[in-house]
């Protein structure tokens, strides 16, 4: 029996507030695996603050890979292997079964003991950690951790349920604007405000260790780049030259920030060494050069440039200074983001005469696939497991977040309760 | 002078924000666009279409008649011919009043990516600045800023809204 401790999550200092975004799956895989997540037993006194099994069930359902068995269709509620009657679950149509029981521990924490079963083979499926120790205030984190394990055991893909997203929420009350940089669980739960202003906030970007955000704020009346620590809220103004200060992007090692400055007359890509504060200009062209993003090996930067007459994505090798145009289809390809293996490039793409879509290009074969069709898509951001792209679009005139898997099979949207929601950025793995 | 006080308020606002920057959540309550120009983008947009011909320049009243919002085509930063005469009149006024200054705010419509649109808004503001300078204004009298697609004049999607949002707004900081 392997164990793990879900310790106090430093990112979540604020008390949980009502979710502003809720995931609605609009398309799953063609044959999702039916899974039953049985309510977990609880042997302590009083009620727990979270229904852990329900969170796991929602995670698995929202992934698009699974259909979940409603509790009212369950013939029994086993909490341990000895109580599982496989025949009951076969009758209910479940291919997989997850049970769990939660016990209080001497130090005031809880211990969650979970079991995953293959109903057809009538055997237990091993998990990396089937005992999860958690603070009683971290039950949601523990649930997401269990979801990650179950997802990986059943699909072979690493789960991203413990990750978070940030996004910009803009509201207009009369002629007063309000902009918020929000942080939430991947599914929109536990939102909290990282930064708020009456002036625009843009381009949030996660450091690779998940502890810092870089973003653009107009709070001084002009755009400037800030870096903020999520744990303490402490922040620093990093760059505020005359003109544009935009599109910050962390290097994979966390030591450098690629950014856009127009102090020399037009937008160029620069690399800022965060320790020495040395600034190095890496593009030299009178066209617009913007939206830098790093290759996972840190050796090259991809960026958008209209040097060819229309925005297209280019790759600049930082050592050789070799420049290569990557996109050729359509008349607008911008704001690229790479999967962690560097193979797939997600971008905003407009086919000639068409609308703005999210597309993904296989950099190995050159093949481009258009994944969305609504028409005003922007800001693609890839989950750290490389399976899902979250992006911003418009629905009934309002900015909303949506997501699509890289293979186009799974789709979900995240309608918001208020305001325009945009510029999602998916965190790296946080554990 | 109103504009000057406004500028002070904005500076003070910025200082407040900077001081607040160490708390977990920073709240900006001052120094917003409303206090900078006294007007929201949509208000300024309605001043479009006033013909500036016959204005000789010189008095502050004369520039009130001039067009202050200049529109652009999609992904373009070429100032349209229709705006030339009024921009020339603004330039003459700036040349005749060295203590006057303007702020040029460049904007884009919602289509395409946000950072690219910020760059596009800057290019548009720079195009207007060049026209003012070649017509006699000093570049020291002109400040440019781009908001990209972050501050649309008109909400909503469609050709009519987009056309009104691709713009440069000329605002006098002092007269």
From TrEMBL, chain A:
InterPro entries the UniProt entry points to: 6-blade_b-propeller_TolB-like, Tol-Pal_TolB, TolB_N, WD40
Any GO CC annotation of this UniProt entry: periplasmic space
Name this polypeptide is given: Tol-Pal system protein TolB
Quaternary structure and partners: The Tol-Pal system is composed of five core proteins: the inner membrane proteins TolA, TolQ and TolR, the periplasmic protein TolB and the outer membrane protein Pal. They form a network linking the inner and outer membranes and the peptidoglycan layer.
Subcellular compartments: Periplasm
A Pfam entry, by short name: TolB_N
GO BP terms: cell division; protein import
Protein purpose: Part of the Tol-Pal system, which plays a role in outer membrane invagination during cell division and is important for maintaining outer membrane integrity.
Main subcellular localisation: periplasm
Family: Belongs to the TolB family.
Residues annotated as domain TolB N-terminal: 22-124
This protein's UniProt keywords: Cell cycle, Cell division, Periplasm, Signal
Endpoints of the signal sequence: 1-19
Gene3D superfamilies per the UniProt record, alphabetical: TolB, C-terminal domain, TolB, N-terminal domain
From TrEMBL, chain B:
PANTHER family in the cross-refs: LIPOPROTEIN YIAD-RELATED, STATOR ELEMENT OF FLAGELLAR MOTOR COMPLEX
Sequence ranges assigned to domain OmpA-like in this UniProt record: 59-175
Keyword Cell division: yes
Compartment(s): Cell outer membrane
Entry keywords, A to Z: Cell cycle, Cell division, Cell outer membrane, Lipoprotein, Membrane, Palmitate, Signal
Species in which this protein is naturally found: Marinobacterium lutimaris
NCBIfam families: Pal_lipo
Gene Ontology biological process: cell division
Annotated gene: pal
Record region (Disordered): 27-50
Subunit structure: The Tol-Pal system is composed of five core proteins: the inner membrane proteins TolA, TolQ and TolR, the periplasmic protein TolB and the outer membrane protein Pal. They form a network linking the inner and outer membranes and the peptidoglycan layer.
Keyword Membrane appears in the UniProt entry: yes
Entry membrane topology: Lipid-anchor
Entries under SUPFAM superfamilies matching the protein: OmpA-like
Signal peptide residues on this chain, from the entry's feature table: 1-19
Protein name per Swiss-Prot or TrEMBL: Peptidoglycan-associated lipoprotein
CC per GO annotation: cell outer membrane
Principal cellular location given in the protein's record: membrane
Record family assignment: Belongs to the Pal lipoprotein family.
Comp. bias (Gly residues): 31-41
Role description: Part of the Tol-Pal system, which plays a role in outer membrane invagination during cell division and is important for maintaining outer membrane integrity.
């Amino acid at each position: 029996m392997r164990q793990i401790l879900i310790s106090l999550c430093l990112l979540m200092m604020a008390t949980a507030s009502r979710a502003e975004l809720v995931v609605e799956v609009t398309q799953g895989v063609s044959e999702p695996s039916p899974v039953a997540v049985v309510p977990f037993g609880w042997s302590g006194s009083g009620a727990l603050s979270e229904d852990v099994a329900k969170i796991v069930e929602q995670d698995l359902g929202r992934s698009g890979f699974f259909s979940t068995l409603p509790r009212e269709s369950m013939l029994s509620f086993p909490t341990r292997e000895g109580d599982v009657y496989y025949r009951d679950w076969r009758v209910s149509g479940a291919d997989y079964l997850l049970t769990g029981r939660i016990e209080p521990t001497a130090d005031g924490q809880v211990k969650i003991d979970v079991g995953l079963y293959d109903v057809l083979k009538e055997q237990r499926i091993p998990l990396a950690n089937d005992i999860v120790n958690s603070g009683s205030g971290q039950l949601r984190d523990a649930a997401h951790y269990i979801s990650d394990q179950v997802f990986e055991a059943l699909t072979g893909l690493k789960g991203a349920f413990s990750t978070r997203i940030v996004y910009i929420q803009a509201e207009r009350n009369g002629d007063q604007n309000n902009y918020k940089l929000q942080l939430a669980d991947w599914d929109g739960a536990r939102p909290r405000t990282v930064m708020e202003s009456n002036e625009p906030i843009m381009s949030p970007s996660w450091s690779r260790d998940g502890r810092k955000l870089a973003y653009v704020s107009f709070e001084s009346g002009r755009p400037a780049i800030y870096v903020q620590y999520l744990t303490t809220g402490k922040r620093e103004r990093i760059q505020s030259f005359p003109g544009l200060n935009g599109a910050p992007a962390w290097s994979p090692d966390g030591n450098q920030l690629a950014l856009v400055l127009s102090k020399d007359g037009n937008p160029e890509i620069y690399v800022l060494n965060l320790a020495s504060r040395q600034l190095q200009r890496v593009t030299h062209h009178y066209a617009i050069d913007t939206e830098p993003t790093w290759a996972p090996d840190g050796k090259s930067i991809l960026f958008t440039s209209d040097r060819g007459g229309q925005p297209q994505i280019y790759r600049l090798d930082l050592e050789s200074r070799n420049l290569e145009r990557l996109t050729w289809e359509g008349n607008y390809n911008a704001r690229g983001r790479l999967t962690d293996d560097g193979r797939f490039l997600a971008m905003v793409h407009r086919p000639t005469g068409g609308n703005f879509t999210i597309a993904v290009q296989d950099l190995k074969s050159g093949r481009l696939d258009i994944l969305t069709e609504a028409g005003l898509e922007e800001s693609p951001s890839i989950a750290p497991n490389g399976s899902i792209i979250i992006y911003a679009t418009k629905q009934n005139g309002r900015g909303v977040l949506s997501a699509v898997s890289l293979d186009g099979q799974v789709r979900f949207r995240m309608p918001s309760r208020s305001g325009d929601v945009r510029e999602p950025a998916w965190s790296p793995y946080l554990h | 002078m109103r504009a000057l006080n406004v500028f002070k308020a904005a500076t003070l606002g910025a200082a407040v924000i900077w001081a607040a920057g160490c708390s977990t959540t920073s709240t900006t309550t001052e120094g917003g666009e409303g206090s900078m120009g006294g007007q929201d983008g949509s208000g300024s947009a309605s001043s479009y279409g006033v013909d500036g011909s016959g204005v000789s320049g010189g008095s502050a009243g004369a520039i009130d008649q001039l067009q202050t919002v200049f529109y652009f085509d999609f992904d373009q930063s070429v100032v349209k011919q229709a705006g030339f005469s009024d921009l020339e009149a603004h330039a003459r006024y700036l040349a005749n009043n060295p203590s006057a200054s303007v702020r040029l705010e460049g904007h884009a419509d919602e289509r395409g990516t946000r950072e690219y649109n910020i760059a596009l808004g800057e290019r548009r503001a720079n195009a207007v600045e060049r026209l003012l300078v070649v017509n006699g204004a000093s570049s020291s009298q002109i400040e440019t800023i781009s908001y990209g697609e972050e501050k649309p004049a008109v909400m909503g999607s469609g050709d009519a809204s987009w056309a009104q949002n691709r713009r440069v707004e000329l605002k006098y900081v002092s007269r």
